[in-house]
TrEMBL record:
Name used for this protein in its record: Cytochrome P450
Protein family (similarity comment): Belongs to the cytochrome P450 family.
Lineage: superkingdom: Eukaryota
Statement: the UniProt record of this protein carries the keyword Heme: yes
Entry-linked SUPFAM superfamilies: Cytochrome P450
Length: 441
């Protein structure tokens, strides 16, 4: 009996606290005046559930069209304008739909504190590059960044694909495996990562914060950072790499154009082996435009909510003053702004990048795919060249055909285009391995 009455009392306390929070969040919170769905204002749980259902980018796009004009108006027929006012997508979080506001949120050092959205422990124990602030963050970027040589990897990838597709095995020894299942675990964890980050109550009350102390680059921290780099670098780049072929395969006319361009440049001797970043930019404009359009614009691999906390005194986002709360933008939303990408913000149309330099420059300002400001992607400088180099090489070496539903199940059928090139590269590799055998003995 006593237990029952205790349970009833506990339930009443929980209910009262919940009711208080809902009422406070909806009517008395500093962000109460900002438009947005009522349930988003009341609790952060709906956003967490939407993330769990894997519908967040589409949801954000829909509600920015509906509420981003400063009021609750019905969206006009397509393409609906995004509006230019920040909207409330969780009790303490505002989302700005306008690309013009990206600089207001991400560039000002005064707002360079990352919001609680990052505190999920999924990207390793804090403090890590995503959670530390100020000078320590700057020093860590310097230590973790640095020049990389990716051309060798492109050649290696082409060689591996050739071997895989044309008779030889991958071979465990050469480690073409997901070492210790790191990427699989990362991907498996993403759903929870998104859920925990968005549901503030869970994050702040139920999560036990684990901290690893010591110097920024102590051995244990260094290992944690390397794991972060592998996780955040490989899956994003892989997604961007597969999105462009995905679009190309479903738009055969684009694939044909790209192939003609690559063949022509190849015939004129303009491409090294493998094609270099500068060569793609200079001689393969259509190919470059397709990479920008598919893997980076329409399917930004990181459509996360990269929240910042407005610093002391608040932040001016466009014409709106935001109090000292969390604010964010979203690549999937701003990169579909009909004002910049009209008349077809949803279509895969690489030609839009080739219409005029002025238009292209304007569209570039909407790109949030790698983040912006002091926390811009650490390895953007090598991820972009990698994208520009690999796909022309695949087109150059293989005939690509296949069917698609979704990147996850993208099946590609590669057929060798140039038998002679394959035999030559095989002979070259054999010569190399006998040479190394000689050196080893
Ligand atoms: C197409 C590929 C990639 C995309 C789309 C991408 C996207 C992003 C985005 C949007 C951010 C900003 C997050 C924020 O505002 O907090 C970011 C940060 C970061 N990225 Fe990337 N990334 C890519 C490749 C890579 C690679 C290859 C690496 C390294 C191996 C890497 C390492 C990092 C790190 C360490 C940060 C945190 C930087 C900081 O907070 O100072 N990324 N990335």
């Amino acid at each position: 009996m006593m237990l029952v009455s205790l349970a009833i009392r506990a339930s009443l306390v929980v209910l009262s606290i919940t009711a208080f929070c809902l009422i406070y969040n909806t009517f008395f919170h500093p962000l109460a005046k900002f438009p947005g769905p009522w349930y988003a204002a009341a609790s952060s749980l709906p956003l967490a559930v939407i993330s769990l259902l894997k519908r967040e980018p589409q949801y954000l796009l829909r509600i920015t069209c509906k509420y981003g004009h400063g009021g609750n108006i019905a969206p006009p027929p397509p393409p609906p304008p995004l509006g230019d006012k920040p909207i409330r997508i969780a009790p303490t979080l505002l989302l700005s739909p306008k690309s013009a506001h990206i600089k207001d949120i991400y560039w000002d050092a005064n707002h360079n504190t990352e919001s609680g959205l990052y505190n999920t422990v999924m990207l390793g124990h804090p403090p890590n590059i995503f959670t530390i602030d100020g000078n320590e963050h700057r020093a860590l970027r310097k230590a973790l960044g640095g020049p990389h040589q990716k051309s060798d990897l492109i050649s290696l990838f082409i060689a591996k694909m050739t071997r895989l597709c044309f008779g030889e095995t991958w071979g465990f020894v050469e480690k073409l495996i997901d070492e210790r299942g790191i990427l699989r675990s990362f991907r498996d964890g993403l759903v929870l990562f998104g859920f925990v980050g968005r549901w503030r109550g869970f994050r702040e009350t139920l999560m036990v914060e684990a901290r690893v102390d010591g110097e920024p680059l102590s051995p244990i921290r260094r290992r944690a950072h390397v794991t972060i780099l592998v996780m955040v670098g490989a899956d994003t780049t892989g997604t961007a790499l597969s999105s462009t072929p995905n679009y190309m395969l479903t738009h055969p006319e684009c694939l044909k154009k790209a192939r003609a361009e690559v063949d022509e440049a190849d015939k004129r001797g303009l491409l090294s082996n493998p094609a270099q970043y500068e060569e793609t930019k200079a001689h393969l404009p259509y190919m470059a435009a397709s990479t920008k359009e598919g893997g980076l614009l329409l399917r930004p691999p990181a459509t996360n909510l990269f929240g910042r906390v407005a610093g002391k005194g608040g932040a001016k986002v466009g014409s709106v003053w935001v109090p000292e709360m969390e604010m964010t933008s979203n690549a999937y939303v701003v990169q579909r702004d009909p004002e910049l990408f009209a008349p077809d913000p949803e279509s895969f149309r690489p030609e839009r990048w080739l219409e005029s330099e002025e238009k292209s420059a304007r569209m570039e300002t909407a790109k949030l795919v790698f983040g912006v400001g002091p926390r811009v992607c650490l390895d953007k400088g090598t991820a972009v060249p990698e994208l520009y180099k690999l796909f022309p090489e695949i087109i150059r070496r293989y005939l690509v055909g296949g069917g698609v539903a979704y990147n996850k199940d993208l099946l590609v059928n590669l057929r060798l285009r140039d038998e002679e090139w394959y035999l030559e590269s095989l002979a070259f590799k054999q010569a190399l391995s006998s040479m190394s055998a000689v050196f080893a003995s």
